[in-house]
Amino acid sequence: MGFRLKSWTRRLIILLLGAGLAIALSTAFSHSSRSFSPFRGFSLPENAIYPPLNEPQEVRLDYMAQSLPPLPPLQPHPLPPSLEKWQDPAQSGDYFDQVKPVNVGYLVWSSFPVKVFIEPLTIEETRYPFTTKRAEDWIVAVSQAVAEWNPYLPLQIITQVEGADITLRRSPPPLRLDPANPAQPGTGGRPTLPLGRARSAETRFELYIQQESSGTRRLKHRFTIYLRPDQVFSYVQAAARHELGHALGIWGHSPQETDALYFSQVKDPPPISTRDINTLKRVYEQPTRIGWALPQ
Prior knowledge:
- The protein is of the alpha/beta class.
- The protein is 29% helix and 15% strand.
């Protein structure tokens, strides 16, 4: 009997140690994988003229051709004055080759200021000092990130979500299934969701057609940025700085840690770099269909 008890005790200890090691490894993996998502989702508003798509990043014009009106031709917009004046005497280079256009061209803005809505405090968050402070810090961090980009492209923070070009949400990125790893049937017939990289932020865009009072119909776009509320101040600011870079037109990532659009979080987040602005300027020199009027 004594031998059996000892054997079961040893097995229990081994099981507990194994479970503890698994939890530790899982926690370490989630922390180290918490990064900027390399793939941002593409969505369309319910009232848009386009049918909804599930593919990220790319607008499939061939798929939508039967329901789309003729789109404006690809052509560049005049450079915004702030970027037209931008010079880099040091010739620091850029990472324009990492920026990919979608099928409507590059995601640039042609009307300024770009209107930015930052999610305000909710009633639930004001009930407890901790949640209030965390939300207020998030708002300050995001507002500072907006101010950092403002010298290069005019931005205006607005207090109503209606009419916003860029909306920043205090929320984890929405759940996104990996099409290469579909859910499998789980216990009780419920599907199990595949586990992906933990994402601290994500940027999504929508296309729509704006009907103007003159009767002109114009192809437009808008962005929604999701930022986790449970990060420290510097990481919230860095994530907002990074995702705003996407929303302003840099639809790609830098391979260098010294750039704000580096593909992952780093211990000491860098400010907006000269290479970031060089890349932004090159993007705004490219052709697009966005912002142009549809043929009559």
